[in-house]
Amino acid sequence: MFHTLAVPVIAAPMAGGASTPELVAAVSDAGGFGFLAAGYITVEQLAERITRTSQLTSKPFGVNLFVPGTRPTADISSYVDRVTACAEKVGAVPGDPRWDDDNYAAKLELVLALRVPVVSFTFGLPDVDDVQRLKATGTTIVVTVTTPSEARQAQQIGADVLCVQGADAGAHRGTFTDDGISPGGGELYGTLAALTLVRNAVDLPVIATGGLMSGADVAAVLAAGAVAAQLGTAFLGCPEAGTAAAHREALAEGARRTALTRAFSGRPARGLVNRFLIENSPHAPAAYPNVHHLTKPVRATGELEVMSLWAGTTYALATAEPAGDIVRRLHGELTDVVNSLAERFKRG
What we know:
Layout: E1 9-11, H1 21-29, E2 33-37, H2 43-56, E3 62-66, H3 77-89, H4 104-113, E4 118-122, H5 128-136, E5 140-145, H6 148-156, E6 161-165, E7 171-172, H7 191-201, E8 206-209, H8 215-223, E9 228-231, H9 245-253, E10 258-261, E11 269-272, H10 275-280, H11 290-299, H12 323-347
Parallel strand pairs: 1-2, 1-9, 2-3, 3-4, 4-5, 5-6, 6-8, 8-9
Antiparallel strand pairs: 7-11, 10-11
Helix pairs in contact: 1-2, 1-12, 3-11, 6-7, 8-12
C-alpha cells in the first residue's frame, strides 16, 4: 500500500487528541496517508472518529492501537506523593494510578468489524491469531519497532510493514519493553541508524519516523530504503490538529530543548523540557500506564509547566500550515532534491 502513495508521507498517530479525523483526511486527500490514534479514548469514541474520517475522505487511512504490557511491579508510592504535591500547587487532584489495557481487545474487534485498511501496533506485538484475523479481512499490519531485535520478532508474527522509530521522535518510544534504567527504555538509535540496522535484519518494507521535517529528510530515508516517511511533530501546528493551545505556543516559540522522560506516563517519551519534567524525571518509575493516569488531571489543567509537551528534536522547524499544504510542500521539496541529485550525478 505505502509503495503506491502519491506522496510518501504519513501523518503519525498522535494519541491524546492531536490526531483528529480532519487532520487524517487532509493528509490522505493531499496524497499522503493518515493514522488515527486509538490510545486513551473509548471504543465508542474511536468508532465515531473512524466514521467521521470516512465521511471526510474517500482515501484509505489507518488506526493505531497500543498493545497492553504486563502490570508494572515498581513501587510508585513515593511518586504518588510527589505528584500529589504538584497537583495541589495547580489546583488539581491526582488521578488513580491504575493499570489498564486501554480497552485493547474491544478496539481490536472494532477495527476488524469495520475492516480498517491499515492497523498499526505500538508498544509490542499483537497475537499471531489476531494478525491472521486482520489479514483475513484484507488489513495491512504495521508494527512499530526501535531495534533490529524487535524487527525480527515482528517479522516472525507476520507483520506486513515495520515502522522504524528513531530516538529523535517526539512522544512515546515504541519499545516493546522498558528496562526502567536507560532514558529511552532500551537501546537508542538515531532515525537513519535504526533504519539501516532494521533493513539489514529483516526483509520487510519499512517506514521511517523520528525527527523528519522537510522534503530533504523524506528523500534521505527513501534513499536509505524506506517506502515512506512518517511525521508527527510536523503536523502538531496544523489548524486541523487537536493540539492544545499552550502546547502550540511552546512549539511556535521554539526556545526549549527536548528530553526523554518517564515523568508524565511511566514510559519513555520525548517532550519539551518544563518544570514538571525537570523535577520529576529522576524519580519517575517505569510504571505505564499507572503514572499516565496519576498525572492526567495535572496535565489537563493546561498549565504549561506541568503539561506533557510532546515534540521531536527538530520541532522548531515545524510550521502552522494546513495539513494538505504541508504534504504538498514536502512533495515539492522532495522532488527538488531528487531532481538536483539526478542533475548532479548526470554531470558527474
